[in-house]
């Protein structure tokens, strides 16, 4: 409530009291504005940094492609990881910005999945993980770029926690009365006590602590993006047998805020 809405003071004590309230209110408004300006400055800096770092990454990729050696291939894989972390940082900064560029329209789901799989083609080959991707043949009302990012994150986790020679399966299934995109692996699975918390920011769980490289940001971003697009995501998993991630792409409403 603004201090301007207060009634006229009845005596000197009330007038002094309202004067103090006005000073406190002005200090609070200034502090909030200063904090918001600092936040915007940080967001602008991180966004600029992410775009600037793409140039040396692209240059290093070209240099590594000039000669096909075991060391260059190994360096290229590490550079790919850096590129994925940069992409995650960019999406993280964009998600809460005032200019989040959602473009909701109908897209071919096969095209989105194909691009996400292509991103990790080398890792599939290196780990000798087979891909069973059934034709989806549906169109979904979504944002192509953001859904592709979510699919990439799910595939990244599946590849990370599936042993060499394993399998990842992508298909459509009806679940809870809705048609869902399912990404399934036969990897190490997720502990039952960790499942309710996998979408929490910074939560790594048993697997993340064992891996020592998990940030706990990927699934958090996936959940937040899916919520904003009006989609749903949930996970079923069993230790030692694998994990199934369900992306329900039926949209009831869009919440861009």
Kindly describe this structure.
By secondary structure, the protein is of the alpha+beta class. It is built from 7 helices and 7 strands, in the order H-H-E-H-H-E-E-H-E-E-H-H-E-E. It is 51% helix and 17% strand. The strands form 2 sheets. Strands 2-4-5-7-6 form a 5-stranded mixed sheet. Strands 1-3 form a two-stranded antiparallel ribbon. It has helices spanning 12-65, 70-95, 109-119, 121-126, 144-160, 205-211, 218-228; strands at 105-108, 130-133, 139-142, 167-175, 178-185, 232-238, 242-248.
Question: Which features characterize this protein?
Answer:
elongated, 7 strands, alpha+beta, 257 residues, 17% strand, single chain, two-stranded antiparallel ribbon
